[in-house]
Amino acid sequence: MSDERDSDARQATVAIVDDHEAVRLGLRAACQDAGYDVIADTADVPQLLAALAGGSCDVVVLDLSLGDGSSVTDNVRQVLATGSHVLVHSIADRVAAVREALAAGAAGVIPKASPMAAVIGAISTVARGDVLNNVEWASAIEADRDFARAQLGRRERDVLHLYASGLPLKLVAAQLGIAHSTAREYLDRIRAKYVEVGRPAPTKVDLLRRAVEDGILPGLDGEAGDALR
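Given the sequence above, the corresponding structure tokens read:
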């Protein structure tokens, strides 16, 4: 298992954006020790874009608050536009800015006070294409319930309720009296809306969690697994 993790690390590419040189050097050294290929470390996003030269990397570790006056949203979106995933490196008490970063599409946030092993673990999670659900992420979401809840329409809620309960999409469509393609469009819109609020739901299990979290389904506890089999 360890060999598999090491292999994943060697294959992943990382870039670092932070306006403090000491932070960049520390992250670079830790990432290289973990086997990652650090292809750039820069003080701001424009320098990163120039270094990538139209390319991308697996993970960009992005400082939440850069000294150049740039906005969190713009920075995250510019990095995402390269095809790279974004892991925000933050001061933990800046909850509003963390929410903004997650809403813009960052895959997660890791506090600057975290042990370096936790930072490397977070990079590994994001490099795999997973969303980092940790205490800082949850705290930012919980602090603003309007941000947390996807604004689903009535029919979208109906589709989510039935689909997350375990019905195949064809049966969801039949029960609601709509075409299978229409049900698929509703499901795509539901997933897009959850991405917009920083709570991606790429799998059926994720959709079940979102439905429970937002009160669309009751807490299923042990029954959740049965519903998805």
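The mean pLDDT is 82. Try to locate this feature in the token string yourself.
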